[in-house]
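User: Hey, my collaborator sent me this sequence without any context and asked if I could get a structure. I don't really work with proteins. Can you help?
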Amino acid sequence: MRIHIFLFFSAILSISACQNITSENQSVPLAVLSSYQLSEILQQYTWAYTPPNSTMPILANISSQGTDIYSGCNQISKTHTLNGNHLKTNPVQIQTLMGCGGLQSQEALASRIFTDSNLEIQISSNDQKYLKVSLKNGAAYSFQAIPAISDLKNYDAELLKKFTWQHISDEPSPDQIKSLLINFTADRMLFFAGCNRKSQYYAIENKTLIPKGDFRSQVKFCGNTQLERQTSQSMSKPMNIRFDFSTSFPKLILESKYQPNMIFQAIPRKEDLKSP
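Assistant: No problem. I've predicted the 3D structure and written it out in structure-token form, which is a compact way to encode the shape of the chain:
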């Protein structure tokens, strides 16, 4: 079976090769993928889907031979055959045996999605890739491509290090020089908000970001340093980590019972936060 890549347009376009007219929410076939090309695209990314009323995504790594799945509890591995765009898994799967509580139904859904399904790659107008997984009962699930994650169980720690995170707020502080930027390394958070560079050690435990020790900072005078002091105070407390995959680049949501949520937008990683 042939696979089509689809591109969604926000306005009515004319496709000269076929003389077809399409409007928003319709799709235009652009190319035909071989099974090899489909397999190559599948393996370039980790695929994420967050079910309604859940904060925990279903994550999948799909290779040419098998699928690894994680949805917050057990790690599941399935071998499969990929015939054209049809994925069929072996009835026997390998998984850890933890009790999942409220995540049990989501884990069952995750396993069911990648049992006997058709796969279709889609590309949005902003070049974001999606994987549409369609089941025989008519149900379909749209997984977003995110940077490849090797350790799905510890996806949060790995994903944090792949981007620079820019703080977004509906009410920017009057003391703000520029938006707060954060980089995560293996053990440190690096901060820059327009004046002094700051850093702090951290750990991640049970999807919680835990600051360790005191802030280290330059001591340049940049006028009003109120925002820098607020940042140090806000980031000094443990915060639960949650990701929103509804946008082209994920959002990071840090939740704490001590203060309002802090929301960060992922942007391409900048090793030097001070650079333009």
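In plain terms: Residues 202 and 211 are 4 Å apart (CA to CA). You can pass these tokens on to your collaborator as they are.
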